[in-house]
Design brief:
The protein is of the alpha+beta class and 118 residues long. Helix content is 32%, strand content 31%. The chain has one domain: YgaC/TfoX-N like chaperone (Yope Regulator, Chain: A).
């Protein structure tokens, strides 16, 4: 399944003006990296992948519609999956994207390779 282009456009709007932002196709979806660190992704399975950190994961799973992010049958610590329905509202989407962006900004900047030319 291809990722949701309309959701990707909405994420772009939230991240407009973000320094050191790169988009990269990853994991069957579209990842948004800040300073070389993945912040959020539009999943090929629908919805968002959000980087929140291991410390925040349990509380967010208990208090929001987020679920643990699973990849190849394994839980990805510090990452949550948020269904598209839970981010249908622009304010809800911005809240999740801002969470992921804040975490990515808090990490050391990684050297970024320029995108390959097609």
């Amino acid at each position: 399944m291809a990722y949701d282009e309309a959701l990707a456009d909405r994420v772009r709007e939230v991240l407009a003006g973000e320094r050191d932002l790169i988009e990269r196709r990853m994991f069957g979806g579209l990842a948004f990296l800040i300073g070389g660190n993945m912040a959020v992704g539009v999943s090929g399975q629908g919805g968002l992948m959000v980087r929140v950190g291991k410390e925040a994961s349990a509380d967010l799973i208990a208090t929001t519609p987020a679920e643990p992010m699973m990849m190849r049958g394994r839980e990805m610590g510090g990452w949550l999956r948020v269904d598209a329905e839970a981010v249908a509202d622009d304010a809800a989407l911005a809240e999740w994207v801002d969470r992921g962006a804040a975490l990515a900004r808090s990490l050391p900047v990684k050297r970024q390779e320029p995108p390959a030319l097609a």
